[in-house]
Amino acid sequence: MTAVVGVLIFLAVVLVLVLLFFWASLRICSDWQRKVVLRLGKFSGVRGPGVFLLLPLIERTPFTIDMRTITSPLRAESTLTKDGASVTVDMTVFWRVVNPEWASLKVANFSQAVLNSCQASLRDVIGRTILAELLSNRQALDDYLQKVLDAQTEPWGVKVESVQLRDVQIPASLMDAMSRYAQAEREASARVLLGESEKTVAQSFADAAKIYESDRNGLHLRGMNMLYEVMKGGNGTIILVPASALESMNMGGIMGMSAMANGTGGS
Description:
Elements: H1 2-25, E1 26-29, E2 33-39, E3 42-47, E4 50-53, E5 59-66, E6 70-80, E7 86-97, H2 100-105, H3 110-127, H4 131-136, H5 138-153, E8 158-169, H6 172-214, H7 216-231, H8 243-249, H9 252-266
Antiparallel strand pairs: 1-4, 2-3, 2-5, 6-7, 7-8
Helix pairs in contact: 3-5, 6-7
């Protein structure tokens, strides 16, 4: 009986030790996480997601890497553009870890390293770009920054998915100067357009004059039509026509007869 009790106690102790060993070895990793495993200080592999076991006192997981896309807002304040304008640029960077081994072993703090790299690249791009291009060509700058940052962070196991320049702030004095410059450009364009229109009208008149010069009857008919258009507006209309114009169109007799007709009708 004593032997049986001893065996049962031994089995219970073994079972407890096995349970303790299993509990100490059990690890759970979320679906969006990966755990870097070190065995006696050396890289052993990447585990997860789900449940996995470790060798107690031999293996450990000092790094837990989030594999989701991370959004990092950045700001470059009072940065000079290529043409000497001081601007403040807000940028958003979308990035994620694609290689947990490199992200944990090749750089001390991959998140801080990515942010510092983005900040430095943003200031460098602003310094190489003139203000007009920075304001009007953001998509090209976004693509360029994405390629530059992706190349810089690739050795760290990080993928920069996209970069978005959200806002470019300029001083109020510079904004006022740019507004006056744009207004002056619009006025200059309007004057050029008006001049082109005057040239077109003058050319049309010159062409019409050549036609009327060879066709006097057409000129007379045009003059009569113009007088008719003016006179039909109302009885109180006063028309001043140079005598030379009436003589050239041979309209003196016509006007006289019209006046006589009006006088006869009135009496």
